[in-house]
Amino acid sequence: MITNVMVVGVGGQGSLLASKLLGHVVLQKGYDVKVSEVHGMSQRGGSVVTYVRFGDKIYSPIIDKGEADYIISFETLEAARYMEYLKPGGRIIVNAQEIDPMPVITGATDYPNGLIEKMKENGAEVDAMDALGIAAEAGSPKATNIVLMGRFSKYFKDITKEEWLKAIEECVPAKFLELNLKAFEMGINA
Length: 190
Prior knowledge:
Distance between the termini: 29 Å
Number of domains: 1
Largest sheet: 6 strands, mixed
């Protein structure tokens, strides 16, 4: 069986670390793993997408429309933008934060309303949370990515909490470890 996960967000939110963490923990479980990053205008606040595919044998890192088991989204509009990649019965774990894209900033358009409800109406299982607020409570808004990974970990019963924590220890610089372990725990319990 193959599991397809898309990690989507806006540049600077830590989606690449989240993808690295996921790839690391499933590799340690013995899965074949392929990760592909699409940066776009990531350093200018643009869309960032990472594909993480794992299973017995993976030949390509790319996820096509209708194939994602999970979308982990760091921002609401990014979740809606990539929803067509979600397979029927798939799940979106989304930070309910709204970051204005350039057309909204320049006044060319308005930020769409009711996106989480619209995703649910279109058949997605949506797990929305204030990951940014939880990360700030943990000690830094920059830990939003780890809060989301904590929440995501609840959907993987074959990967223990201890295995996730070990992966965090191996992927996160020591000076940020305590903060990230706390953020992960808070994401699980949110």
